[in-house]
Amino acid sequence: MEPIVISSRDFQEEDGCGKRHSVLLKKALIAPDAMLDFADVLHECGYNDDYAVIYDENTYEALQGRRPKAKQEIILPPENLHANEHGVELAKQRLGDAKLLIAAGAGTVHDITRYICAERGLPFGSVPTAASVDGFVSSVAAMTLGGFKVTVPSAAPDFLVADLDVIAKAPLYLAASGLGDVLGKYVSLTDWEIAHTLTNEYHCRYTADLMKEAVDEAAGSVEGIASGDRGAFGSLMKALVLSGVAMQLSGNSRPASGAEHHVSHMIELGPPWLPSCDALHGEKVGVGTILALQRYRSWLGKTPEELERAVDAWKPYTEAQLRPVFGALTESVLKENADCCLAKVDPSRIAPCWDSIQSLLAALPSESQVEALLARVGGKRSLPDLGIDPSERDRILSWSPAVRNRLTFMRLLHTMQL
After folding, report:
1. Is 290 helix (H, G, I), strand (E, B) or coil?
2. What residues are paired with 54 via a beta bridge?
3. Measured at the alpha carbon of residue 171, what is the angle toward residues 170 and 177, in degrees to the nearest 5?
4. What is the DSSP letter of 314?
5. Where are the alpha helices (DSSP H) in 163-204?
6. Does pTM top 0.85 for this prediction?
7. pLDDT digit string (tens) for 228-257?
């Protein structure tokens, strides 16, 4: 297969959306044997060999014979390793004076490394070893700080080298997680456009189309992923990288995170009535995508009056509402929603926009289509797959919008239950 090369020069700086686009990623190389060209990519991007690589123990073994020749190797124990204060401190304790940090592994190691790079003002490089998550070239880190899931502005990588020989040999459940994260963009892109339609929130058609095309390509590569085809893994990896690029182009996570991610974040927060869940982020996003599609498509053919009345009667969240749901996390949720996005929705806008909203909902894939794609690679597809009682479905869907102050169709529907 031909190498996939993604460069900042590939993307439009302006396209009429009102924002000047900026892509921090200088170069991404996705190819078989890509690690053989690691030094060339490093030097092409202006760096010498004064760098440290952060791994966990499993990744260190997986990259045997393909590891970058680093000034320092930091190998973290994988047990209970999370992108939180403990994980960051564990890496910082071992860190020397390298002038560049490189994350080698999957999502957790990347978030820890980019967080430290942002804190110390160091450049960042990415070596993904599995197509498991879309955060490799993001400019934000998904962290758990003070027990609350937050998105923190962090360092985007200057370069990425993804060796498809390594990635295709990773356990298939990791690619299933990455596919779940990618398929979630069907929901997030719809949420973004609905928010733009109702409130004139910033929206970029160029960025949305770029993301949608990559998602469609990855969805069409499922059979190849299941059979271990490196080209198919290349398509999935390309979509994961372009998700990060789309976030850089738009200046936020809108193209990549909507109601489906809020379901994942709700589960990750661990409110007192939900069991602990050790599923991967993308696995939870995949299940969140299916749940969101079920709820969204159930509104096809409905009239807007019920939603209009609910939005008109909306009031900000109160502690009395949130405390039974979020327990000790209530203060953080109240703070997140202090300037609630629903205040920007004029109920009188819903009816004139209803045909457009219906068209957006109709364009979504069905939940059965997404279930079939995830099933082909052995992905998780239901709450029981995550170890969660299906009776909690409605409570999760009702309250997951509160974990992020972002206008989604799910958040509009939640007003009907307050």
Report:
1. helix
2. 74, 103
3. 100
4. -
5. 164-167, 172-183, 185-199
6. yes
7. 999 999 999 999 999 999 998 998 899 999
- Residues 211 and 218: their CA atoms lie apart, in Å, by 11
Q: In whole angstroms, what is the distance from residue 90 CA to residue 205 CA?
A: 41
**Mind giving me the DSSP string for 333-344?**
HHHHTTT-GGGG
Distances (CA, A) of 103 to 215, 246, 357: 25, 21, 41
The count of other CB atoms within 10 Å of the CB of residue 351 is 13
| Cα→Cα distances 158→4, 365, 406, Å | 17, 34, 29
Sign of CA dihedral 229, 235, 240, 241: positive
Place of tokens 């998700």: 243
In single-letter form, the type of residue at position 341 comes to C
Confidence category of residue 120, pLDDT binned at 50, 70, 90: very high
| pLDDT over 90, % of the chain | 83
Classify 171 as helix, strand or coil.
coil
Q: Give CA–CA dist 189/183, Å, rounded.
A: 11
Structure token pair of residue 246: 């789309």
Buried b (16+ CB within 10 A) or exposed e, 157-181: bbbbbbbbebbbebeebbbbbbbbb
How many residues are there in the chain?
418
Distance from C-alpha of 401 to C-alpha of 396, rounded to nearest angstrom: 9
For 142, phi then psi, to 5°, come to -90, 100
| 2: exposed, middle or buried (Cβ count in 10 Å: 0-12, 13-18, 19+) | exposed
What are the distances in angstroms from CA 195 to CA 90, 192, 210, 309, 349? 40, 5, 19, 18, 11
Asked if the model's pLDDT at residue 153 lies above 90, the reply is no
Q: Write the CA distances from 414 to 257, 296, 382, integer angstroms.
A: 18, 12, 21
The neighbouring-strand residues paired with 27 are: 7, 159
Q: Coil, strand, or helix at residue 127?
A: strand
Q: Is the pLDDT of residue 14 over 80?
A: yes
Paired strand residues for 73: 53
